[in-house]
Amino acid sequence: MTIIALAASSRDQSLNVALLDVILTALDGAAGQVERVDYRLFEDTPQYSARREAAEGPPQGMKDLADKISAADGLIFVTPEYNHAIPGSFKNGIDWLSRISVTLMAVKPTLIGGASASPYGAWRGMKSLRPSIELLGALTMPYMISMSGVGSKADIEARFQDPMARVRIDAALNAFRGQMAAKQ
Predict the structure, then answer these.
(1) 115 Cβ partners below 8 Å, 6+ apart?
(2) Domain NADPH-dependent FMN reductase-like, which positions (predicted)?
């Protein structure tokens, strides 16, 4: 089993990179082989336009990522929230991926997470991600992992140890594990 994992941030000390690390540790091998995508691919991808697509086709980096996603058994996307949505470079990359294949993520178990120092925990960003990837066929889990009011990886790790928080975290992780197991 192969999982593509992406934290939509390349910032030093990123809370979302930290959350992805903690999620992968919590899955403890149940995720199978994990390939992490470097978010700089998204940051370096040119802005999508129909004119550019007609003249040049999709960027090679996005075609390579599409091949990896197509071959993967599951996906984990962790995103910050920018103005109640996902980062523009993340949406731009998804737009390019959609031009490669509208069924790219078809029936792939997909776990979504997000972390923020704000009281909303990137909730609105995660919520805005769902329609874009569901359009590509992603089988999103009914629960997402939202970390609000965190300022460091240590805060996220502590939240993963909190029995009250673990109820929702475990619901998301178990749904993802269950969908991955069903693919075997």
Answers:
(1) 15, 16, 18, 19, 78, 80, 121, 122, 146, 147, 150, 156
(2) 1-143
- Averaged pLDDT, groups of 10, the chain, 184 residues long: 95 96 89 90 97 97 98 97 95 98 96 94 94 97 95 97 95 95 85
pTM of the entire predicted model: 0.96
The total number of structural domains in the chain stands at 1
pLDDT score of 28: 82
Domain that holds residue 119: 2-183
Q: Kindly report the backbone phi and psi dihedral angles of residue 121, in degrees, each rounded to the nearest multiple of 5, phi listed first.
A: 60, 40
The CA distance from 22 to 20, in Å, is 5
Q: Which amino acid is at 29?
A: G
